[in-house]
Amino acid sequence: MLGSGLRVLIVGDCEGLAEMIRDLRRHGYEAESVTTGADAMAFYREHDVVLIDLDLEDYDGLTLCRQIRGASDIPLIGFARSAALERVLALEAGCDDCVVKPYYSRELVARLGALLRRVRVLSPPALTAGKLQIHPSLRQVRIENRLVEITRKEFELLHLLATEPDKLFSRAELLQRVWDYDDVNAEVTSLASRTIDTHVSSLRKKLGSPDWIITVRGVGFRFNEAADREDGSCPQEELTRANGTSGEAAPWLSSRRLFREVNSAPR
């Protein structure tokens, strides 16, 4: 069944809401509802798809669609009146589809199923590293299926690092690819460097471990796929970061630094 286990959030207090929830649950969806825009913003990240009645009492429905779409790629379906303009505005505000009120249950379920099939075909697969899962299409991060609340930039940073776990990213490259800096060859300012450090520190705390993101002093950062392994050992870069040297020369050390370290060592 297509809807098996998928969580649907309905935003609105429209007529027939209870029946809609029953229909969705009968087709295998886990459906629940909120009545305010504030609650929608608070809870939409915990779901797989959002249905929004554009005629909310406390919030402009189109504004809500824009805000959710600006922060997430989660599938959105809007409920609009029959006016063609409202349907067009809903699509322009970020909805993936629009259903005219009053709707027919079979049409809603069919449209929802078709949308989710498109999302599954077009979406990149989730990235998994042990207990950590990163869902690009939903812009969600989970640890042991527990949703981790992170900001948009934190997600982009973590996703970039996890996409290429064997790559060591310089600060300049992170600024270019996550923060859209134009000149990757320009010297990284102290303010820009602190911005990266702040986001990395926040991610480590939210992920529950500092070991998911490894810092290589003076060079940059990389993702650690083995952060939750049980043997308690840490990767070579972590040892380098903690002790200053690893016992053997790391490949990213310059020849000048190697010469200085060799000649300054006790004899």
TrEMBL record:
Q: Which residues carry this modification: 4-aspartylphosphate?
A: D53
Q: Which residues bind DNA?
A: 124-225
Q: Where is this region: Disordered?
A: 228-250
Keyword set, alphabetical order: DNA-binding, Phosphoprotein, Two-component regulatory system
Entry keyword DNA-binding: yes
Report the residue ranges that make up the OmpR/PhoB-type domain in this protein. Answer: 124-225
User: Keyword Phosphoprotein, does the record have it?
Assistant: yes
Response regulatory domain residues are: 7-116
Q: Which stretch is the leader sequence? A: none
Pfam families named among the record's database cross-references: Response_reg (PF00072), Trans_reg_C (PF00486)
SUPFAM superfamilies in UniProt: CheY-like
Question: Out of the domains of life, which is the source?
Answer: Bacteria
Put simply, this protein is called Response regulator transcription factor
Q: Which organism is it from?
A: Streptomyces similanensis
